[in-house]
Amino acid sequence: MEPLLHIMLRADFDAAGDEISAASLSAEGFIHCSTRAQVLVPANERFAGQRGLVLLVIDPSAVAAEIVFEDCYETGVAFPHVYGPIPRLAVRAVLDFPPDEKGCFHLPSDLPKTL
Q1: Nearest one of 64, 55, 60 to 1, comparing CA atoms
Q2: What mean pLDDT do residues 41-64 have?
Q3: Which domain holds residue 28?
Q4: Cα distances (angstroms) measured from residue 91 to each of 40, 42, 47, 86
Q5: Taking Cα atoms as reference points, which of 46, 18, 17 lies closest to residue 32?
Q6: Is the CA virtual torsion 19, 12, 21, 67 positive or negative?
Q7: Does some domain include residue 90?
Q8: Whether residue 72 has pLDDT greater than 80
Q9: Is residue 45 part of a domain?
Q10: What local confidence, expressed as pLDDT, does residue 28 receive?
């Protein structure tokens, strides 16, 4: 099974309790996630150069909330959206996600392809 990926600040992850949330859950009704093949698009478009980020590797089978693949921005690409909080127990790995010297992100070498 392919994991879901979510980018967030390490400080926010460390401060989270038993459930992981995001501002988008209140604002849009879901938490933005990506697949391995997609994650560099939002990373480089929305987080370029930002430091202190982690990449959460999430087991979708351990998430009770509905997961829907949607193309919300009419890009032709459907991203996974989690319609509720993500249980901390569903997070299988927390990977440091630093940009390179030019501010671009690359897949971490220890990012699993499957769970």
Answers
A1: 60
A2: 97
A3: 4-96
A4: 19, 20, 21, 8
A5: 46
A6: negative
A7: yes
A8: no
A9: yes
A10: 94
